[in-house]
Specification:
The protein is mostly beta strands and 227 residues long. The protein has 1 helix and 17 strands. It has a single domain, classed as Porin (Beta Barrel). It has a 17-stranded mixed barrel.
Length: 227
């Protein structure tokens, strides 16, 4: 018997380590709440410091998923369905069309559009191929409260290989410190502090290692509110 994850859960641990706690070159605020009738609301706003542009997003969930962007008028609707049993996971999305995702598990391998392999209980290896042109993989490890991750992506027909390394994500009480290193001599730093229950402050910075005195560095500020 095996426990097959959904398509969107493949490599999720490594993605979360790299994406959460960073907001280079922007000021953002996120608000999540749920009404007594179990309707979920997610509101987010972003202001970019280098361009001065701002954007906002409102998302509600109640059976179907709806998205509305106030500043552009863009909206969409999605109806999702999924079926899961031992060693098999099937999902479908209806959004003016139809798309399906299928994953089949055998032993410790999971095959579909992407693939994942658990080397040990605390190590995850994930590989993917997109459109037959982009190849990538990630390694994620968690020991106690320390997380480490490596992401590697290569595009066919291009000499550009993207490598990102996150040596550790250190939790100290309610504080999270996140260093991140790219092969383009970029160093990312993230600092997350829980101010009180449901209120989180995030500070981040992207430093150009090759041109430290030349400027071009980015900083970010974020608030997360949950009620």
């Amino acid at each position: 018997m095996c426990n097959t994850p959904t398509y969107y859960d493949l490599g999720k641990a490594a993605k979360d380590v790299f994406n959460k706690g960073y907001g280079f070159g922007m000021v953002k605020i996120d608000l999540r709440t749920k009404s007594s009738s179990r309707v979920e609301f997610s509101i987010s706003g972003h202001a970019y410091t280098d361009t001065g542009k701002a954007s906002g997003n409102l998302e509600t969930k109640y059976g179907i998923q709806t998205i509305f962007v106030p500043n552009t008028g863009k909206k969409s609707g999605k109806l999702k369905a999924s079926y899961k049993q031992d060693c098999f996971s099937l999902g479908s999305n209806v959004d003016r069309g139809f798309s399906g995702l299928t994953i089949y598990g055998w032993a410790v391998w999971l095959a579909g559009y992407q693939m994942s392999f658990d080397i040990a209980a605390d190590i995850q290896l994930h590989t993917h191929v997109n459109d037959g042109t982009e190849f990538g993989g990630s390694i994620y490890q968690k020991v106690s409260e320390i997380e480490r991750s490596i992401n590697l992506t290569w595009t066919a027909g291009s000499n550009n290989t993207r490598l990102a390394l996150l040596p550790n994500a250190s939790w100290i009480a309610e504080l999270l410190y996140l260093p991140k290193i790219y092969n383009a001599s970029l160093i990312g730093l993230g600092y997350t502090q829980t101010l009180q229950l449901g209120v989180t402050l995030t500070l981040s910075a992207l430093i150009h290692g090759k041109n430290f005195n030349g400027g071009g560095h980015k900083v970010g500020l974020g608030f997360e509110l949950e009620a």
